[in-house]
User: What shape does this take?
Amino acid sequence: MISHEKKFIFIHMPRTGGTHLSEFLRPYCDEESLIFSPYQSCGNLHATMIDYVNHYGERILDYTLFTIIRNPWERALSHAIFHNNKTFDKEYFKKVIYEPYRHHLWPHSHFHFLVREPAMVEGERGICPGYPPAIPPIMKQVREYFYWPEFIRFENYAADTTKIFDKLGIKYEPQQLKKRVNTTKHKHYSHYYEDDEITAIADVCGLDLQLFEYTFKDKRKK
Assistant: This one.
């Protein structure tokens, strides 16, 4: 979502609580920004930084950019359950992990939505448009490839969102920030993973893990 009035860009990554957040932001977005999206079935959600720059030009790069991040293993599980009628199916879960593009879903790394330039990366499971190239874990080099946002941690949603809203002058009721919508019910995420699936998410989300210090918390019985 983008607001020229408040000069902000909110990049909504799937399964991070962004649908709820967008309700507070909509009053500040003009009509054009609300209907713009390369993903027509999703309204104006899940557009990338490349999409916004291509549409509005580089003048928006001075806007406040923010997004929500979430443990990628937990997010992938929520993704699979939500898109399977809110039920867990192991076969579908594997497809979400290994072949998200082929099932019209988004990749697991948060940085897919923040990359500066489009890329076409060919791997064992096909070509992934817009997926960022391998980046050394050095902040200066990372910033050359990505638009660097302010982050709201899903795990600290209300407190982090309050700071962003206060900075931007967004009106909100504190109790409303504690609400959750489109939630999925399940046990601790680790119970749904096999070792190869844990590794697959870690490989794709390596940069997320380095910079955000997310780890796989294993509560499976050995």
Summary: The CA atoms of residues 82 and 183 lie 8 Å apart. The longest strand covers residues 64-69.
